[in-house]
Amino acid sequence: MAGVMIVFDFDKTILNCDSDNWVVDGMGFTKLFEELTSTMPWNLAMDIVMGKIHSQGITIDDIADCLRRAPLIPHVASAIKIAHSLGCDLRIVSDANVFFIETILKHHGLLDFFSEINTNPSLVDKQGRLRIFPYHDLTSSSCISNLDSCPSNMCKGRIIERIKANGEEGNKRIIYLGDGKGDYCPSLRLRTNDFVMPRKDYPVWELMCCDPSKIKAKIYEWSNGEELERTLLNLIHSINFVEDHKVDFNKSDAILSTALDCKSQLVAVSPHEAFNLSVPL
Fold first, then answer.
1. Which of 3, 148, 214, 229 could form a cystine bridge with 79, CB 3.0-4.6 A?
2. Does 106 fall in a domain?
3. 9 given a catalytic annotation
């Protein structure tokens, strides 16, 4: 079995808010941040705001306490734990930063479920000030798909291409979950046997709706945590069944569609039931 790799965005996909805004607003620096982002890249503005926060006597522990209060999307924690228990390789690709993501995941007991976190580097310097740096070199980080939806500091499409090129890991079927404009480029880099789960009525979903034919992967939308969990787990079970039983490509589409169409409960139709309902033997 090739296996399943699940790639999560973080803000508004695992976390039910934007972690940068959560800290900036919680610390009372919203106005400054808005002024900075009107004239410079978001990532650079965050680093400057962290400096201003430090200069006001707000400590890294204060920032961590603020992050621990940030809400997860309901059901996402259980979805992560179950997906991991089913043997999935879980990763994060996010335009947040290491400190924010690791602090939140540790607080909820979820950090160890992820094999890799791709996000903007951060560190606490000798003065106790949080520094945030760009993931990609700003002078050479143009979008691999030539889109304006990728920020200058991170092209998630490049990260997906790197993952796909990594030998055995690259053979895993990818399920990508995201919500923002930056999640459109990596969605374009997915293959026909991969899957993408955009959050409905969010920017990445709207971009996909403009021309769904540009996406090679199968698209399954979600609106809330319950839908995310149900769709993701049904998809994992169905993929595992198809691969374990060496079902051919045409029949596998029918199994996946049937298992995912039913919305009455968490795992509404088992892959075996879907196989019997959809495909004559």
1. 229
2. yes
3. yes
